[in-house]
Fold this sequence. Notes:
The chain is of the alpha/beta class. Helix content is 33%, strand content 16%.
Amino acid sequence: MSTAISDLTGRPVIIGGGAAGLMTALELAPEPVVLLSKSPLGAEASSMWAQGGFAAAVGTDDTPALHLADTIAAGAGLCDEAAAARIVDAAPAAVERLAGLGVAFDRRPGGGWRLGLEAAHARNRIVHATGDGTGREIMRALIATVRRTPSITLLEGVEARRLLVEDNTVRGVLASKDGGWFILSTNRVVVATGGIGGLFADSTNPSGCFGQGLALAAHAGATLADLEFVQFHPTAFDGPSRPMPLLTEAIRGDGAVLIDETGQRFMADQPGAELAPRDIVARAVWRHRAGGHRTFLDARTNPGADFARRYPVISAFCKMAGIDPAKDPIPIRPAVHYHMGGIAVDREGRSTVRGLWACGEAARTGLHGANRLASNSLMEAIVCARWVAESIGGVCAGPQATLNADAAPPPADPSAVRPILTQGLGVLRDRGGIERAIHSLYPLARSQSAASDTALVGLMIAVAAAKREESRGGHFRSDFPDSAASAVPSSLTSSEALGAAREIVESIPTIRSAQS
């Protein structure tokens, strides 16, 4: 590593090389910052894979108030309305900010934005780039800008392994590279590490996104919120590849429909049909498959012959699988796509630990509630990055602390956790499955093994799911199929989760082993 670590003392440290981390670093310029990325920039960032687009009320028939109404409706009673209003109000300016950084959004012949429609949106308000390559284009522009910004020290191939905390205050970051480890002394850290899809067997996320940021925050004592709300995208490509290729919701916005092997449109009689909120569509697909059917996305009529031009990335991987979307139905199934829960933060992105902020999918801002509205995720990351940067800019570098730390823990490995969460915390959940997951995860979370960090995150998700005895948004329990009269956000720390898990394990030590 050519940069002397001692020269970086006191600088804000941003953990994560996706859109949230890159944008936060850029918004902090010209203040010197350190950006840690476990992989080369963009290589394992969910942002790079985002197809749907960037939701913003930029159309002449649209307003932030309408965007907010759709967001609140999709969130199933758990959005923080004030936080959501502030975020969607800032979305149009964020589009202009990205365009100013060189993002080539799609435009109409007259020069205005070309706007698409996605599920549960009342207006065409999705700004795209190169059709289904919005995330890739945003990341291209952000990466290029970061690399030429002199105030950003980029440490690629470096993984944050622990946050060093004293008196509920961040003092540094324990990081590793090439088997060695070192400490960055700082009182300002941003977790922007993305989601948890890699904790499940079937996911559209990069396999390297398995909740590392949540583990960092959990070990630091931060409060996490709404962890039980996992969004399953209803139209992942049903094939052998893992991660699973995504078939963006925009295709259904263009008129494609869901059918089974008989040609039946099994969503036709549902409110909103194929453009109902994602949780509803995902459960409908799951149940239809459970009934013995195969499920397909039928784009042969709409967009039909225009498919390859509108969705070049999807068209390419379909053709590699021997499918022509203009002529053949595309096999689909639900897969983990997004996590509505995360590190509990305030309107400036501050966590419950002093000196620790979170941005992007790793943060729970209150925008998404129990079910994220399509294309609100890239928007949230870009909008909130500015407020996080402004908050950090108001905090002076603290006095250098004498930091001591044990050697870094072993590299996290989610392979032992994937089958547990896949079986117990899927599209449809029940008490037995959740408790079996807790029983399996608890000893792993308390171990010092490579599975411990991922098991801790999985355990916190499972405990939150056990506590929510209702169905709401992305959390559906077949034993509690109705929503409670009032919606209450959930929150817990790692110690609370471990305590609750211990009670469950000790109350039924041979938990349904006869059924296993």
